[in-house]
Design a protein that fits this description.
Elements lengths: L2 H13 L2 E8 L2 E8 L1 E2 L6 E6 L3 H8 L2 E7 L13 E11 L6 H11 L12 E16 L2 E6 H10 L2
Antiparallel strand pairs: 1-2, 1-5, 3-4, 4-7, 5-6, 6-7, 7-8
Length: 159
């Protein structure tokens, strides 16, 4: 991945704030929607989810997840050519006493300030999704794979 591609990936992830979240539900694929924030320093993605949600129970049972972030649909770009990033990662609970909790919470609330009240709800908690690998599609015939280490380096360095 070159610097231009890295910047395009970063720009897409910073501009969009909702992802499709894939979990394993009783051994079967399950997809839902989650708002996300970027964890500081390129350390992944922060989600704030309810324990009542199927995907939360799934992540507690099996941390392997996938996120799909897509660019906005326009009439000028065929759906198959939409820029997108698919993340394969591990979702871990981020408890209030965890060393990264304050930074994760701040990242989430910076992106979703109206979520402040939900941090007082007993059934909501933070999870951090640490990428294992990423697949970035910039359009037709523009795809590349990214390691977790390269993702962290590109995101921490600003691309």
């Amino acid at each position: 991945m070159n610097a231009v591609q890295a910047q395009a990936m970063r720009h897409l992830l910073e501009r969009q704030d909702v992802a499709a979240l894939g979990t394993l539900h009783k051994g079967e694929p399950f997809v839902s929607m989650v708002p996300y924030a970027l964890a500081p320093g390129g350390h992944g993605f922060v989600i704030h989810v309810s324990r009542l949600a199927t995907h939360t129970k799934d992540m507690e049972t099996d941390p392997r997840v996938s996120l799909l972030v897509m660019d906005e649909r326009t009439s000028e770009v065929p759906p198959q050519a939409l820029p997108r990033v698919t993340v394969q990662g591990d979702a871990r609970p981020c408890a209030p006493d965890a060393p990264v909790y304050a930074a994760a919470r701040e990242a989430y609330l910076s992106r979703f300030p109206n979520s402040q009240e939900m941090f007082g709800f007993a059934d909501f908690s933070l999870f951090v999704i640490a990428p294992r690998s990423l697949r970035v599609v910039g359009g037709f015939a523009q795809a590349w794979s990214v390691t977790a280490a390269d993702y962290a380096r590109f995101m921490a360095a600003g691309g």
